[in-house]
Design goal:
12% helix, Jelly Rolls, globular, five-stranded antiparallel β-sheet, 300 residues, mainly beta, single chain, 22 strands
Length: 300
């Protein structure tokens, strides 16, 4: 996806062939959106779209008791050469009133250059009135809390949390399958078309949690990075020769390789930035060398 804030790290760090000069900000890796479809690249179902598998082979591949019309997750890689907008996703209780969809997500930081910042929540004590005045004066960044993450850290971003990604990061994002984003501040810049990008001030003010002060990067205990009603994400380290399969044989999982390499049963090698769908059952893949990965499942 071309984005005004994107760069070329998908090419330089992950070896992707990019469609043109860019800037390229997002790669939608696991997507069942009406106009953005993931297609299986290898294995038994190569050539099928994710929606085809979800619609026609759900029980066989993903497991039972999964009712949503589309695959419920959207998984991306984000390359922020510049700052993303300060934005918010609407919470469930008001999303439909605004004509949007709720979106809770989590970020895993794969790379963070020195001084790179995430913008999350409000500074302690900031009121809605002060925030509205900052919108009018173009100084919203003075109201927003920031943290400087390290590679390997993660943070949970529930619907309603004001947030933005600063320049200099490569991030794996796991989220609900939704694409409603309300921009409240875009650093007073123009888009790729030379025009100021649309802001959604009314919707943002209705969606922001004005009690969400100064959240920190998550401090997970054990391998679990995030668990909510929409997804469960674990961080797993494998030594060379170690195998990994689904945590529950009757449910699928998705592996995101963050370093190292994985070999499947057909001998195909996957490396950093690759996403593997492990269908339900006793399917296992093997680490070729020391490897780290995220493993995402759906909660019951």
């Amino acid at each position: 996806m071309p984005r005004v804030w994107g760069g070329r790290s998908l090419e330089t760090l992950l070896g992707r062939k990019l469609p043109g000069p860019g800037p390229w900000g997002e790669s939608w890796e696991v997507s069942d959106r009406p106009t953005e479809q993931s297609v299986v690249s290898s294995g038994e179902w190569a050539g099928n779209s994710l929606h085809d598998l979800w619609a026609m082979r759900r029980e066989e591949i993903f497991g039972g008791n999964l009712k949503s019309e589309r695959f419920p997750l959207l998984m991306k890689i984000l390359d922020s050469r510049d700052h993303l907008s300060i934005q918010v996703h609407p919470p469930t209780q008001i999303a439909s009133l605004l004509g949007g969809s709720p979106k809770t997500e989590m970020w895993y930081i794969a790379r963070a250059l020195p001084g790179s910042k995430l913008y999350v929540g409000l500074k302690e004590g900031v009121t809605r009135g002060q925030f509205e005045q900052a919108i009018r004066s173009g100084s919203v960044e003075t109201m927003v809390h920031s943290v400087e993450p390290r590679a390997g850290q993660s943070i949970f971003v529930p619907s309603g949390r004001l947030h933005g990604i600063g320049a200099g990061m490569l991030i794996y994002e796991i989220q609900q399958n939704a694409d409603t984003t309300y921009r409240v501040f875009d650093w007073n810049r123009v888009g790729l078309d030379g025009q100021a990008r649309d802001l959604h001030v009314r919707e943002s003010l209705a969606s922001i949690d004005f009690t969400d002060y100064e959240p920190a990067m998550d401090q997970p205990e054990g391998q679990n990075l995030a668990t909510c009603q929409h997804f469960k994400v674990d961080y797993v380290e494998l030594q060379a020769g170690a195998e990994i399969g689904n945590p529950e044989p009757d449910r699928f999982s998705i592996i995101t390789i963050t370093s190292g390499t994985i070999r499947d049963n057909n001998g195909t090698i996957y490396s950093s930035g690759d996403f593997l769908l492990l269908p339900k059952g006793p399917v296992r893949v093997e680490a070729e060398k020391s490897t780290t990965l995220l493993q995402t499942t759906l909660p019951h």
